Amino acid sequence: MQIVITAVGPDNRGLADPIVHSVTGLGANIGEIQMYDHDQQSIFSMLTRVEIDPSRAGEIEQAMADVARKTGLSVRTWSPEITGRLPRLAICVTYRTETPRAVLEAIRSGHIRGEASVMIGNREKCRPLAEEFGVPWVNIAGGDGTPDDERLIEVCDEHQVDYIVLARYMRVLPASSCWKYAGGRIINLHHGLLPSFPGIRPYHEAFACRMLTYGATCHFIVPELDAGNQIIYQSTFTVPPGMGVDDIVRRGERENEPHCLVEGVRRVTAGEVQLHFNRVVAVG
Fold this sequence. Notes:
It contains eight helices and 13 strands. It is of the alpha/beta class.
C-alpha cells in the first residue's frame, strides 16, 4: 500500500535521516522524497511517499511517532488508499456559499464519495450552511477575519481529515500548513484559469484583456501560490461581446465555480487522480 509521510518543524541537521532509515528498515520502497528548508523562517519540511506491505502499516505509524518524539518534528502518516469508510473532508470557507453548498449537495446525493467531517471558516457567513447540512462548524478567526492557521490544522487533525477543500476560502495557507497536509491532500478552487490569471481578481484581469472565455480551476495546493501545474479540473464559459464584468462575475460564481470544484473533488475522492512530484497524474 502507499503511505505519505510529512514532517515539518524547526530546521536542524539530520532530520531526514531517521525518517528514511525507519521506512527502509521496515522494507518500504521509497517512491518520492521532497525536502525544503525555509531559511527565513528556519523551518524544515519533508514529504516521503513509500510503498509497503499493508500488514506493516501500523509499524510505519509507530516508527514515525518515535521520530516525532525524538526530533520534535510534526509528523503525519496518511494513505490515499482509503478502505472501509468514506474519505473525510474539511470544507474551508469565507463569504461565498455557492461552492461549499454545491460540494455538500454532491456529498449528500452520493455524487462525491466522501463525508463532510467539519466546516472551517474565518468568517461567520457560512455557519448557517453548516447547520443546514448538520456539519460541525469551527471559526478559526478573530473579529477581523485573520485566521489561526495552526488551529485550522489542529481541527483537521482532530477530525482525522483526509482532504482539506478550500471552497473559496479567501486566505493563503502558509507554507508550513501546506507541507503538513502535502501530497495531494489540499484541494483549492481558484476563480480563474491558471496559469494565465492567478491572484485575487482573475475575472477583472481577464476582462481587462478583453477575454470572451472565463473559467475556474480546481487544483492541488503546493507552497507556491497558484503554481498552475497541479490542475485537477478546469471549466470554462463564454460570454457575448459587451457583457459587463459584474454579470460575468455573477455567472462565474453562481454556475461555473460550483461545478468546477465539485468535479475536482469528485475526481480526487474517487481515486482517479493523485499528486506525484507536484504533478497531477491519472490513477489506473
